Amino acid sequence: MKIIDAQKSGQTLRADMFLPNWLMGFGIVLDIAAVAFLVAACVTQNWMLLIGVGGAGVLGVFAHLCWKNQTIRILSESTFEYTTLFGKTTVYAFSDIKGIRVNEDSFTMFVGDGKVHIESIAILSQRLFDKIDQALEKNNGQ
Asked: Which of 21, 42, 45, 142 is most exposed, with the fewest beta carbons within 10 Å of its own?
């Protein structure tokens, strides 16, 4: 996880949590590989190559959807909006943050009755990081 203080760095962030641009590039490379597998399958008539078409194509689409959709935006001092891989948007209150589980390649934040998935490659604004930290301190201190 990378944390950026937009005020100090002078950067404009597209959200308070988002995935890096290289993930979109990786998705494009995978989709190009899927097309190459398809061409190779047609030319050689080795239909087993269609497994590569499906695998690379699906992974490429998922990488692009992750990059495009998976975000967190702070709406106010007390609420934030989480958008999933598939574009489903939910508004949560910072005060409802119960805890964070560290997974092998991501983090799961438990908020109210829901879960917020944060990839380990995600970029977070310093403001979001501080708000999550404050909420965890407040809720764990009760």
From this structure: 142
Q: Provide the 3-class DSSP secondary structure of residue 13.
A: coil
Specify the amino acid at residue 87.
G
Q: How far apart are CA 109 and CA 97, in angstroms?
A: 7
- pTM of structure: 0.84
What is Dmax (Cα atoms) for the chain?
A: 66
Report pLDDT digits (tens) over 71-120.
999 999 999 999 999 999 999 999 999 989 999 999 999 998 999 999 99
**Rounded CA separation 137/120 (Å):** 21
